[in-house]
Protein backbone atom coordinates (compact mmCIF):
# COMPACT_ATOMS: atom_id res chain seq x y z
CA UNK A 1 0.00 0.00 0.00
CA UNK A 2 2.78 2.40 0.99
CA UNK A 3 4.60 1.62 -2.28
CA UNK A 4 1.51 2.54 -4.26
CA UNK A 5 1.14 5.81 -2.37
CA UNK A 6 4.80 6.69 -2.99
CA UNK A 7 4.52 5.90 -6.71
CA UNK A 8 1.36 8.00 -6.97
CA UNK A 9 3.10 10.88 -5.21
CA UNK A 10 6.06 10.75 -7.59
CA UNK A 11 3.79 10.51 -10.62
CA UNK A 12 1.68 13.39 -9.35
CA UNK A 13 4.60 15.73 -8.84
CA UNK A 14 6.13 14.84 -12.22
CA UNK A 15 2.84 15.67 -13.92
CA UNK A 16 2.62 18.98 -12.04
CA UNK A 17 6.13 19.98 -13.13
CA UNK A 18 5.39 19.09 -16.73
CA UNK A 19 2.56 21.58 -17.19
CA UNK A 20 4.11 24.16 -19.48
CA UNK A 21 5.24 23.28 -23.00
CA UNK A 22 6.51 26.51 -24.52
CA UNK A 23 5.72 26.75 -28.22
CA UNK A 24 7.25 29.76 -30.03
CA UNK A 25 4.71 32.02 -31.78
CA UNK A 26 6.42 31.34 -35.10
CA UNK A 27 5.94 27.57 -34.68
CA UNK A 28 2.31 28.04 -33.66
CA UNK A 29 1.62 29.95 -36.88
CA UNK A 30 3.22 27.37 -39.21
CA UNK A 31 0.97 26.30 -42.08
CA UNK A 32 0.70 22.71 -43.35
CA UNK A 33 2.25 21.81 -46.71
CA UNK A 34 -0.34 19.05 -47.08
CA UNK A 35 -4.15 19.09 -47.19
CA UNK A 36 -4.93 17.76 -43.71
CA UNK A 37 -8.47 16.75 -44.67
CA UNK A 38 -7.28 14.57 -47.57
CA UNK A 39 -8.02 10.88 -46.90
CA UNK A 40 -4.78 9.66 -48.45
CA UNK A 41 -2.75 12.13 -46.35
CA UNK A 42 -4.54 10.88 -43.21
CA UNK A 43 -3.79 7.28 -44.27
CA UNK A 44 -0.09 8.16 -44.70
CA UNK A 45 -0.11 9.76 -41.26
CA UNK A 46 -1.74 6.68 -39.76
CA UNK A 47 1.08 4.48 -41.05
CA UNK A 48 3.71 6.76 -39.47
CA UNK A 49 1.65 6.94 -36.27
CA UNK A 50 1.44 3.13 -35.99
CA UNK A 51 5.19 2.89 -36.43
CA UNK A 52 6.34 5.65 -34.05
CA UNK A 53 3.54 6.87 -31.78
CA UNK A 54 0.99 4.16 -31.11
CA UNK A 55 3.08 2.38 -28.45
CA UNK A 56 2.52 5.27 -26.02
CA UNK A 57 -0.42 7.22 -27.38
CA UNK A 58 -2.56 4.24 -28.47
CA UNK A 59 -4.10 3.71 -31.90
CA UNK A 60 -6.68 6.49 -31.34
CA UNK A 61 -4.52 8.87 -29.29
CA UNK A 62 -6.17 8.10 -25.96
CA UNK A 63 -2.84 7.41 -24.23
CA UNK A 64 -3.68 3.72 -23.91
CA UNK A 65 -0.82 2.19 -25.90
CA UNK A 66 1.12 -0.69 -24.26
CA UNK A 67 3.85 1.75 -23.16
CA UNK A 68 1.36 4.45 -22.12
CA UNK A 69 0.68 2.91 -18.70
CA UNK A 70 4.39 2.98 -17.81
CA UNK A 71 4.75 6.72 -18.40
CA UNK A 72 5.01 9.19 -15.52
CA UNK A 73 3.73 12.08 -17.61
CA UNK A 74 0.19 12.04 -18.98
CA UNK A 75 0.40 11.68 -22.78
CA UNK A 76 -3.02 13.33 -23.05
CA UNK A 77 -6.26 12.57 -24.88
CA UNK A 78 -5.95 13.54 -28.53
CA UNK A 79 -9.69 13.21 -29.13
CA UNK A 80 -10.42 15.99 -26.60
CA UNK A 81 -11.51 19.52 -27.50
CA UNK A 82 -8.59 20.87 -25.46
CA UNK A 83 -6.04 18.96 -27.53
CA UNK A 84 -7.75 19.76 -30.82
CA UNK A 85 -7.90 23.50 -29.97
CA UNK A 86 -4.14 23.75 -30.55
CA UNK A 87 -2.90 25.02 -33.91
CA UNK A 88 -1.56 22.67 -36.61
CA UNK A 89 1.86 24.28 -36.15
CA UNK A 90 1.78 23.52 -32.41
CA UNK A 91 1.13 19.82 -33.00
CA UNK A 92 3.91 19.75 -35.59
CA UNK A 93 6.32 21.53 -33.22
CA UNK A 94 5.55 19.30 -30.24
CA UNK A 95 6.03 16.20 -32.38
CA UNK A 96 9.45 17.16 -33.66
CA UNK A 97 10.84 18.71 -30.47
CA UNK A 98 9.48 16.33 -27.83
CA UNK A 99 9.55 16.97 -24.09
CA UNK A 100 10.52 14.78 -21.14
CA UNK A 101 9.28 11.26 -21.86
CA UNK A 102 7.98 12.29 -25.26
CA UNK A 103 10.83 11.62 -27.71
CA UNK A 104 11.93 14.27 -30.22
CA UNK A 105 11.28 13.14 -33.79
CA UNK A 106 13.27 15.81 -35.65
CA UNK A 107 15.91 13.24 -36.63
CA UNK A 108 13.66 10.17 -36.91
CA UNK A 109 10.96 11.68 -39.12
CA UNK A 110 12.74 13.96 -41.56
CA UNK A 111 10.23 13.99 -44.40
CA UNK A 112 8.16 17.18 -44.24
CA UNK A 113 5.10 15.53 -45.79
CA UNK A 114 5.26 12.69 -43.22
CA UNK A 115 5.32 15.22 -40.39
CA UNK A 116 2.24 17.02 -41.68
CA UNK A 117 0.55 13.71 -42.44
CA UNK A 118 0.95 12.91 -38.73
CA UNK A 119 -0.78 16.18 -37.87
CA UNK A 120 -3.57 15.17 -40.30
CA UNK A 121 -3.91 11.82 -38.49
CA UNK A 122 -4.01 13.56 -35.08
CA UNK A 123 -6.79 15.80 -36.41
CA UNK A 124 -8.75 12.75 -37.53
CA UNK A 125 -8.82 11.53 -33.89
CA UNK A 126 -11.21 14.32 -32.88
CA UNK A 127 -14.34 13.03 -31.12
C1 LIG B 1 7.69 6.91 -25.31
C2 LIG B 1 6.30 7.37 -25.35
C3 LIG B 1 5.87 8.31 -26.43
C4 LIG B 1 5.98 8.13 -27.79
C5 LIG B 1 6.60 6.96 -28.55
C6 LIG B 1 5.37 9.31 -28.40
N1 LIG B 1 4.90 10.15 -27.43
FE1 LIG B 1 3.95 11.92 -27.73
N2 LIG B 1 3.87 12.23 -25.72
C7 LIG B 1 4.34 11.37 -24.76
C8 LIG B 1 4.20 11.99 -23.46
C9 LIG B 1 4.58 11.36 -22.13
C10 LIG B 1 3.63 13.25 -23.67
C11 LIG B 1 3.34 14.33 -22.62
C12 LIG B 1 4.63 15.12 -22.44
C13 LIG B 1 4.53 16.17 -21.36
O1 LIG B 1 3.62 17.00 -21.40
O2 LIG B 1 5.40 16.17 -20.50
C14 LIG B 1 3.43 13.37 -25.12
C15 LIG B 1 2.88 14.48 -25.72
C16 LIG B 1 2.63 14.61 -27.07
C17 LIG B 1 1.99 15.73 -27.70
C18 LIG B 1 1.42 16.95 -26.99
C19 LIG B 1 0.12 16.58 -26.34
C20 LIG B 1 -0.70 17.77 -25.86
O3 LIG B 1 -1.64 17.53 -25.09
O4 LIG B 1 -0.44 18.89 -26.28
C21 LIG B 1 1.94 15.48 -29.05
C22 LIG B 1 1.36 16.37 -30.13
C23 LIG B 1 2.55 14.19 -29.25
N3 LIG B 1 2.96 13.68 -28.03
C24 LIG B 1 2.69 13.58 -30.48
C25 LIG B 1 3.38 12.39 -30.68
C26 LIG B 1 3.61 11.84 -32.00
C27 LIG B 1 3.09 12.41 -33.30
C28 LIG B 1 4.38 10.71 -31.80
C29 LIG B 1 4.97 9.80 -32.86
C30 LIG B 1 5.73 10.42 -33.92
C31 LIG B 1 4.57 10.55 -30.36
N4 LIG B 1 3.95 11.59 -29.72
C32 LIG B 1 5.27 9.51 -29.76
C33 LIG B 1 4.88 10.11 -24.98
C34 LIG B 1 5.18 9.58 -26.21
Secondary-structure blueprint of this entry?
Blueprint: H1 2-17, H2 25-28, H3 39-52, H4 54-57, H5 81-84, H6 88-97, H7 112-124
Helix pairs in contact: 3-7, 6-7
Bound molecules: heme C.
End-to-end separation: 37 Å
Summarize the helix and strand pattern as letters: HHHHHHH
What value does the average pLDDT take? Answer: 90
CATH homolog superfamily: Cytochrome c-like domain
What does this structure look like?
It is a single chain. The chain has 127 residues and is an all-alpha fold. It has a single domain (24-124), classed as Cytochrome c-like domain (Cytochrome Bc1 Complex, Chain D, domain 2, Orthogonal Bundle), CATH 1.10.760.10. It is built from seven helices and no strands. Helix 3 packs across helix 7 and helix 6 (88-97) crosses helix 7 (112-124). The longest helix has 16 residues, at 2-17. The chain is globular. The structure holds heme C (HEC). Heme C (HEC) binds next to helix 4 and helix 6.
Short description:
The chain is mainly alpha-helical. Helix content is 51%, strand content 0%. The termini are far apart.
Please tag this protein with its features.
127 residues; mainly alpha; Cytochrome Bc1 Complex, Chain D, domain 2; 7 helices; 51% helix; binds heme C
Amino acid sequence: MLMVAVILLIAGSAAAQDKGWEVPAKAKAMKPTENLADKSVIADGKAVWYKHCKACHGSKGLGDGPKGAMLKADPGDFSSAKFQAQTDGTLYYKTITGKGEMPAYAKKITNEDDRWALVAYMRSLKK
